Amino acid sequence: MPSSVDSALSKGDILEGSEEIATTGHENSDKGAPVDEPTAPSVSLNDPPRSSSKDIVAAIANHYASPSKPGSTGPTITASRPNFRNKNSGEGKELDAHLLRRLAGPSVGKAGLARDQTEITRLIARASEGSKYYENEKRKSEEVEKKIEGLLKLRDTQRAMADIPRLEASADKIIAELEATRDLSQTIVHVDMDSFYASIEVLRDPSLANKPFGVGSNNGVLSTASYSARAFGVRSGMATYIAKALCPSLIVVHMDWERIGAASEAVMDILREYAGDPDGSMEGTGMDVAGVDEAYVNITGYCKAHEIGAEECVERIRAQIFEETKLTASAGIAPNKMLAKICSERNKPNGQYALSFDPDAIKEFMRVLPIRRIPGIGRVTERLLDAVEIRTCGDIYTHRATLALLDKHLHLREKLAVYLGLGSTQVKPWARESRKSVGAERTFRAIEDPAKIQEKLELVTRELEGDLERLGFAGHTVTLKLKLDTFEARSRAKSARKPVRKYDELLAIGQELLAHELPLRLRLLGLRVTNLKDLRAPETGIKRFFGNPQEAAIRPAKRRKLDVENSDGKDAMKEEPIYILDDESEDDADEQPQTKRAATATPEKPRTQSLPDVEAVPRASSHEPMGSQEFFAATSNQPLGKRKRQPSPSHRDDDSDDIEEVVRHKSDKSSEQHICPICSKTLQTDNAGLNAHVDWCLSRSAILEASASASTSGPSDAAKSLAAQSKKATGAKKTGPAATTAKPGSSKGSTKGGKADIRLAWKVL
DNA sequence: CGGATCGAC
DNA sequence: CTATGTCGATCCG
Which PROSITE patterns match (predicted)? Predict the structure, then answer.
């Protein structure tokens, strides 16, 4: 194995990444129910590393035949910055450092990795060599290199005639502005389950404890690896056969979506208890489920109400999680989501970390933080920043002039906010109105027979129709997504005059788009609908409800410190008087295509003028209709809603800012009459009650949908459907006991009664 | 608006 | 001889 190279790369700041790799469960549920036999989990102690023509695998196996006792030691964390430059020019065909990292997978940087990450990485690269996947990665890598080249050139020419001190001064001005927006009033915790899938497996089969094993859907890749497996270099996202090469004794278990979903539910329910106003009246409103195994919780109110400190509160949360699920969680406590997330990894396995709320301490914390730790900064961005010598957040300040010069590409303002440790303090449930698209896609063995491709299109279309139906959306634009067998991706879209959602309409458009592309050799085909129309948007009945002057009055008052970003916080408050009481439909009423949907993307002013002298330009604020927004925002969760949203705190300089209103403080009018937008029933309850009901109602329809597809499409589809739910419906009631016991009428359906049942379900599993 | 890319889980 | 699916954001033309 090469060595000279090592010096250049060896200390890969391996720390971080995502614990779990997202997987779908589509494949694993193919064969009926998830593995859950009385017997041992479906382990596949496969054949020893098949010595392929490439004895690379064998080489890897050799290299790691005797890893530094897996359990014995935590990974040696050699803190050092990534170094992408290829200093190993001495060797014949050296693989590009960036490419190596790409091949290493998305989660390189995770905690608990083996020591010499570099060796593993390059061996993996060798093993991958020649595959289409490899070639594609190489191509992409080269594109990035090219972009960097251009960037550096631009920087140099610009710098030649730039007034550096002035650029720095303007950056400092922005810093001052941003600093003024700092909000330390909220205590936010990010709770992250420890190797979730793996831990769940250990619970089912205790004999797995301390053994190196991985959890994967099928033959492909591992979604997660146990800590002892990580000591061998195995990590999430890694191809199973490579993992086996690294760790011959690796055990591979399949995902058990039922359990994962139940466990997730149990955990989220616990968290919801801590996420509410001080009086506890709005339990769950201060929570943001960010995936099956993680969530943000605003514990400000809870701590105040119970007169306890944040750390104690979080200890309590974690203890409760463990007590009720026997699963451990890690957590980060900080004044905003970004920081909380970063902190939750700090003491990863079963630990917590509380960041100081002192601005200077926060800045010091950021100063040494590798840029890659920032949510939103991935492989490519890390590479770009590295090119301009920015590796830690502290480097952002040092090179602020460069960022100013390359603002168009590197976003100075956004980076400065990161440098300051600013982030969103908005913690609330995902609102269905913020959904932008609904889609379905499928990967398969490359095919080129038009008839076969057509079949795939039909399959995907059927799936999409089902999702649209279940979710209650239709869309104006249909996009066909293709991935060639070379991994090259492509997409084609077409907008219809009317929002579409039916199978026939979708298929027709899909076929049209597809026809134009054939012939093809495909490995993936997907269909997606955007420019959504919410079919469950408030109808006249509901509209009246929200038109209620009292509700409207809340609007302007409750404008909270918008997150970072907002060049001019001052007048942001004026021109508030627009309470879109009625009609959310004007939403797609299509008028100003600009105003709404495009609000974020199309600022009223040229987005390019954000460079140096960015003068705060008061823009006409873009208002989101609030009607149903508040309604749903207060809802505790979203069935089948997906996660992830603006990772980075800032947006352009346009203030389209997330009109994130604080929806809480509500009129807790106890008895009011509302009409459920889903089932149309009239309810006698307060807002919370209504929301709870809608919640239940939505999840119920999701379940019905699942059963329906079960009877119409056969068992495999049903299983898939359920799997999809477990994964997507982070907040939705799961099927099974939990779901069937949830009480619709109860104004607290999601809290008391139902919860106990759900937990019971988890324990029973 | 359509297309491509990045990032996240 | 591996590498999903689903979604949001952003940038470009």
Answer: UMUC (PS50173)
Domains and CATH numbers, chain A: 4-133 (no CATH), 435-625 (3.30.1490.100), 682-764 (no CATH)
Q: What is the largest CA-CA distance in chain A?
A: 78
For strand C, which nucleotides have at least one atom less than 7 Å from a protein CB?
A: 1-12
Kindly list the distances between the CA atom of residue A642 and the CA atoms of A151, A537, A549, A553, in Å, as whole numbers in the listed order: 35, 18, 32, 31
Pair of tokens at residue A528: 């997606």
Whether CB of A144 is under 7 Å from strand B: the answer is yes
pLDDT computed for residue A108 by the predictor = 53
Cβ of A239 near strand C (under 7 Å)? The reply is yes
For A365-406, the pLDDT digits (tens) are 999 999 999 999 998 999 999 999 999 999 999 999 999 999
Whole-number pLDDT of residue A242:
80
Q: Which two tokens stand for residue A685?
A: 């309850």
- Separation between Cα atoms, residue A425 and residue A319, nearest integer Å: 25
| A584 carries an active-site annotation | no
Give me the torsion for CA of A716, A717, A718, A720, rounded to 10°.
90
- Whether the per-residue pLDDT at A633 is higher than 50: the answer is no
Q: Among all strands, which nt has the closest C1' to A290 (CA)? A: B9
CA-nearest of A648, A613, A684, A712 to A167 is A613
Task: Please list, in sequence order, all residues whose beta carbon lies within 8 angstroms of the beta carbon of residue A53, skipping any fewer than 6 positions away.
Answer: none
| Closest nucleotide to A650 by C1' from CA | C9
Q: pTM (2 decimals)?
A: 0.67
Give Cα separations from A570 to A443, A606, A655, A715 (angstroms). Answer: 50, 21, 12, 58
Element holding A57 (H helix, E strand): helix A56-63
Nearest to A110 by CA among A349, A355, A423: A349
Whether nucleic acid strand C comes within 7 Å of the CB of A220, the answer is yes
**Residue A719 φ then ψ, to 5°:** -60, -40
Instruction: Measure A202 CA to B1 C1' (Å).
Output: 50
Separation of alpha carbons A28 and A23, rounded Å: 10
User: Looking at the C1' of nucleotide C11, which residue has the nearest alpha carbon?
Assistant: A409
Integer distance in angstroms from CA A121 to C1' B7?
A: 22
Which strand B bases fall within 7 angstroms of a protein CB?
A: 1-9
A423 CB neighbours strand C below 7 A: no
pLDDT digits (tens, 9 = 90+) for A240-281: 878 888 888 899 998 888 889 999 999 999 999 999 888 878
Q: Which of A526, A472, A739 has the alpha carbon at shortest distance from A26?
A: A526
Is A143 (CB) below 7 Å from strand B? yes
Tens-digit pLDDT profile for residues A644-680: 333 333 333 333 322 222 222 222 223 333 333 333 3
Evaluate if the CB of A40 falls below 7 Å from strand B.
Answer: no
